[in-house]
Amino acid sequence: MVYETNIEVLKQKLLEWQSKLRKDRKFKTESGVEVKPVYTPIDLEERRFNYLEKLGLPGEYPFTRGIYRTMYRGRVWTMRQYAGFGTPEVTNQIFKKLLEMGSTGLSLAFDLPTQLGFDSDNPIAVSEVGAVGAAVNSVEDMKTIFSGIDLSKITVSMTCNANTAAALSMFIVAAEEMGYKKQDLGGTVQNDILKEFIARGAYIFPPEPSLRLVSDVIVYCSKHLPKWNHISICGYHIHEAGADPVFEMAVMLSDGIEYVRRTVERGIDVDKFAPRISWLPSINHIDFFEEIAKIRAVRRIWARIMKEEFNAKNPRSWMFRFYTRSGGLYQTNRLLEVNVIKNTLAALAAVFAGAQAIDVCTMDEALGIPSDHGQKVALRTLQVIGYETGITNVVDPLGGSYYLEWLTDELEERIVREMEKINEIGGIIKAIKSGYIQERISKNAHEFMKKLESKEKIIVGLNEFVDDEEPPKRETYRPSSEIREEAIRRLNNLRKSRDPKKVEEALDKIRKIAEKEETNENNLMYPIIEAVRARCTNGEIHGVLREIFGEYRPPLVF
Fold this sequence. Notes:
Layout: H1 7-19, E1 27-28, E2 34-35, H2 41-46, H3 51-55, E3 78-83, H4 88-101, E4 105-109, H5 112-115, H6 139-145, E5 155-159, H7 164-177, E6 187-189, H8 194-200, H9 207-224, E7 228-229, E8 231-234, H10 236-241, H11 245-265, H12 270-273, E9 277-280, H13 288-309, E10 321-325, H14 337-353, E11 357-359, H15 372-388, H16 402-425, H17 428-433, H18 436-454, H19 481-497, H20 500-515, H21 525-533, H22 538-549
Parallel strand pairs: 3-4, 3-11, 4-5, 5-6, 6-7, 8-9, 9-10, 10-11
Antiparallel strand pairs: 1-2
């Protein structure tokens, strides 16, 4: 140990202390880790805890204490809010309000038709245009969303997966036509299709062509967008679907291994793209210390995987850089101020875990689209933590806690075991196709609901301490027919003004490349960008890809 402690004397004192404790019930974390009433140097001694090997210093392998040497002493995390709905004009106004409030990053939400590759005038999109995000049919919509916003000073995150190639292409072309160079653009695309097959369901194509598009984006960005995070591997939705922290982390890391493996197989040096891999794990206030410990454990695991399994030489390739947001899963729709407390604790956990960017759920998200007031309170929550608490003055202030270090080790072992089970099945793709991942998540979700019903697990405002008053009355946002009509009007104007011959040629180029085998020379990003320049729409681009790749239909489960 790095300090002097007479372990034998401590063991005797501990036995005497324990003999005076009354017998109580067992306490477990969300992942089922049984925890003792107190932790001491003995617990770390029993694990043969080696400070330099397991903990080390911030900014150094294995990055348990954070990926940068000075962390928030140098710069606080990026503060962004996930936002956007309705028309591009409305989303532009929302973004400008957020920047005025002090937001240091923007996070664009797309509506469901956009995510699934449909234009707003498609009959299937009737009730969904602008509902859960902005309707983005073409590069003109993207230009409207970012009109008057300095893209050289702000990073942009886009929550897109199946439609990533088209969405990113629209952003690139929009930025270029607004006067920016590709190499100067900073931001993130989610581009994590595996989590859609696992937990969320917003997929378009079958797994293989979907994974081809993921790699196409990674390869293109690593060559042309040096400041862009080409993937943000997501555990957030896996947790929201029902996974406990350990299984969430195991699946998320297994997804990451698959993406790296496939890109390396494309002949790309791992150090050319790995430094721009980013992550989106969930972090909530539920079991505060486990949420922090799981990130510390994952940083260690990922550093080891990249260094030892993929032979990455650049230390930046070993780093687990992550953005997170507090989720709406545990929010109440009664006394909304309670949600401010929940969100503050979740944000604190993210800070203690060493997040690079944080987005706080709004206090009124349980009621519908967040209000301006809710957005402002969420952003102010991050600002108070960042500038008033002193937490940012010290790197990894919880490092060395007997409990936290013991728990980090324990979670690391459990996460690795779950990853080994996935490997035994044949890897994450086979584990998904077999239904193993979905079954585990579903089973855990069922167990969690049973705990809520029996009140073994207490969630304030949901199953206990529920306030009698009715939910606050507020006009719920509902996308009007006018929003869809406006989107269709813009589409019609676009189609009238463009060159039909260039459109057909651009779409035919996508078709011919999609028919060819997956190689770096047949990267679909290039013809898609040219199609966007020709003013092809989101639906038209994905319509051609549907012709070649088909649509995925999950197997029926009885």
